[in-house]
Design a protein that fits this description.
Length: about 120
């Protein structure tokens, strides 16, 4: 993308921020991949909005881009899994294990087995 396009995106971001179009700001940040808003990311993490955290992050990096990306995506998905177990929602935990965490099986089979065993605990907490 040209520097002119980049500057235009930043001006649009600034305008949207000033006009309080918060969701639009974050969508443009994510879609353009130019500006990672750490404050927004931290707010979503602290609120436990893991799907939004992963969606926002995916605008800047993919699971298989590098080992750091893989690690952070794994930790996000693991947290979703642990919270489902904590709520005793085994169906959701199994869904997360099968759909979200299974991609990490090839990278660390032992860790995947360990987190799978958490399902068998009667009292997770």
């Amino acid at each position: 993308m040209s520097s002119l396009s980049r500057e235009l995106v930043f001006l649009i971001l600034q305008f949207l921020e000033e006009e309080k179009f918060k969701e639009s700001v974050h969508r443009l940040e994510q879609e353009s991949g130019f500006f990672f808003n750490m404050k927004y990311f931290e707010e979503k993490v602290q609120a436990g909005e893991w799907d939004e955290v992963e969606k926002y992050l995916s605008g800047f990096t993919k699971v298989d881009d590098n080992r750091y990306s893989m690690k952070i995506f794994f930790e996000i998905r693991k947290q979703k899994y642990l919270e489902a177990l904590d709520r005793q929602d085994k169906a959701k935990a199994v869904e997360i294990l099968v759909t979200d965490l299974k991609v990490f099986l090839t990278f660390n089979e032992e860790l995947y087995k360990e987190i799978t065993q958490l399902l068998t605990l009667g009292n997770f907490r």
